[in-house]
Write a structure and sequence with these properties.
Shape: globular
Number of helices: 14
Number of domains: 3
CATH class of the largest domain: Alpha Beta
Structural class: alpha/beta
Low-confidence stretches: 1-18, 123-139
CATH topology of the largest domain: Rossmann fold
Distance between the termini: 68 Å
Strand content: 15-25%
CATH architecture of the largest domain: 3-Layer(aba) Sandwich
């Protein structure tokens, strides 16, 4: 959807505020880290904790919220407006003049500042601000798929549904520009009646009204490809999944703060125990060209949103992204966050499986294969905000078609990690042995992927559990290792959160001398590749 007319109308208005800059302000530390990790239910839902334990994902300092007093102090500075925050990166997104933002470095808890206009970052490693232009709009079950038959059957989702893998107990978060009428439309009645719409949030307006009829309808169309259902006419790829709907995109403008809104939403999704994120947004240019990316920036490590997508992947979520709709333009390649190595990037094909020329190509700037796979993005069936079944074009729709399908596949073996799931899907794809810039690994065969997924034995990563004894202790503290764990790092903190000791321990010598510690309560945080465990002990 073109935004040129609106851009021209706003141009004169916006130039009066050209002095205002976007920046990320990073903090030096966080308060109450030890206490939060000792009782993660204070910072995460039980579903989030269960999902992390199931996949062996460590609960760590990134999960601890930004220190609220720091945010309050920054927001109280003259000329500064705090627009968003990120616990993963321990920062806030601010607006202000260059001078007022730079003055924040005088605050003792401010570690560094990175401007979205990277020309203003003279001597620091750039946060690689995302100047991007979003490519938006861009018992056995027997379904009559009707209008969705092509997009479902092309990748083999119908075989998943026949095996009763329809997304049950899986949770999908959709990041988009608005979801008007999802609370009233007939196309989502089945989802609402089953209690599968778990909620959402408008990060742009700071409102719970994510389904406002006045919002851009792109998210409604996207959601319909996964959750929509009209008897004998329309079946989404994950009709029985649960959904959170997050508005992170302001369709009226293109500014770097939308990247921070996206990261905020991903953090919220993680804390709620979301399994799959779909984002049909892509960024490469902004209204203010000083924020623009270059194609060399599409390396997965430059754009703030891409770095956020990578952390989301590391937290155990499957991040499905649209490749972008720049294939016909001078840009040509994928946009952020599709460049993140942890993103599962989806391009567009037509009903015959042929490449659609608008679909953004690969590879990434560092020469990784992108897109990962392809799905229908030309003439995709959708349900509009007026509850009318229609068609739409764009990788905006191939992405959620795939996201819903992968939620169903993951349901078949939820102990798989996100990486393992992505590998199975790539390996099932039509040109896995000979990927191309246009098609990546090709069109997946999810029936094949399902057979492979069900044929492997996945480890039960929930069995990891350390123990400390004796407790209380006077001299030597013994560490009991879980089965199949041979080493770990251990950090000791006192009862006010100060780190007092750190070392590596191995199962061959599972003890440490704590005789030199003062008497009192301590927290031990043990970390492996699969787990972070916090335990208390008393030194006598």
């Amino acid at each position: 959807m073109s935004k040129l007319p609106l851009f021209l109308l706003l141009l004169g208005f916006c130039t009066g505020f050209s002095q205002e800059e976007h920046a990320w302000v990073y903090f030096t530390d966080k308060a109450n880290v030890v206490q939060a990790l000792a009782d993660p239910t204070t910072i995460l839902t039980q579903k989030a904790i269960d999902r992390k334990n199931l996949h062996g994902i460590a609960i760590d300092e990134k999960d601890v919220p930004v220190t609220e007093s720091y945010v309050t102090i920054v927001a109280g500075q003259s000329g500064i407006s705090v627009k968003a925050r990120s616990k993963w990166f321990n920062c806030v997104h601010v607006l202000g003049t260059q001078a007022t933002i730079q003055q924040l470095t005088s605050l003792a808890f401010v570690d560094r500042i990175e401007f979205a206009d990277r020309n203003l970052n003279s001597s620091r490693t750039q946060i690689q601000s995302e100047t991007f232009h979003k490519e938006k709009l861009d018992t056995r079950i027997v379904y009559n798929y009707g209008n969705t038959a092509t997009q479902v059957q092309q990748i083999g989702v119908d075989h998943l549904h026949q095996e009763d893998h329809t997304g049950t107990n899986m949770t999908i978060a959709v990041m988009d520009s608005g979801f008007p009428n999802v609370n009233t439309m007939g196309g989502f009645q089945r989802m609402r009646d089953a209690g599968q719409l778990l909620g959402g949030y408008d990060f742009v307006a700071r409102s719970n009204d994510f389904g406002n009829a006045g919002l851009n309808s792109h998210g409604t169309l996207v959601l319909s490809t996964m959750a929509g259902f009209v008897q004998d006419q329309f079946v989404g790829t994950a009709p029985d999944a649960n959904y959170y709907l997050f508005r992170t995109e302001d369709a009226a403008s293109e500014t770097p703060v939308e990247l921070s809104y996206w990261v905020e939403a991903a953090e919220r999704a993680d804390s709620l125990g979301v399994d799959v994120i779909n984002t049909s947004l892509g960024y490469n240019t902004f209204d203010d060209a000083s924020y623009n990316f270059t194609t060399a920036d599409m390396d997965g490590n430059t754009a703030f949103i891409s770095k956020g997508a990578q952390v989301a992947f590391e937290k155990g979520m499957l991040v499905v992204t649209s490749a972008g709709n720049s294939g016909n333009g001078s840009w040509g390649i994928i946009t952020a966050p599709a460049d993140a190595s942890g993103s599962f990037t989806v391009g567009a094909v037509n009903s015959s499986g042929g490449y659609v020329s608008f679909s953004s190509r690969g590879p990434t700037a560092d020469n990784r294969v992108k897109p990962d796979v392809m799905a229908l993005g030309s003439g995709s069936a959708v349900i509009t905000q007026s509850n009318v079944i229609s068609t739409a074009n764009g990788t905006s729709f191939s992405s959620p078609i795939m996201a819903g399908a992968l939620a169903c596949l993951w349901q078949s073996n939820p102990q798989l990690t996100n990486q393992e799931l992505m590998d199975f899907v790539r390996q099932s794809s039509s040109i896995f042995n000979n990927p191309t810039d246009q098609l990546g690994y090709g069109i997946p065969d999810l029936e094949m992927a399902l057979n492979n997924v069900l044929s492997v034995e996945t480890p039960d990563r929930r069995g990891l559990d350390f123990q400390l004894h004796p407790n209380p202790v006077t001299g030597r503290l013994q560490i009991q290792f879980p089965n199949k764990v041979s080493s770990a790092s251990i950090e000791l903190f006192d009862n006010v959160g100060r780190k007092v000791h750190a070392e590596e321990i191995a199962v061959e010598t599972p003890f440490m001398d704590v005789s030199g510690l003062s008497a009192g309560l301590y927290f031990a945080i043990l970390q492996t590749a699969y787990q972070s465990k916090s335990l208390k002990f008393i030194k006598q």
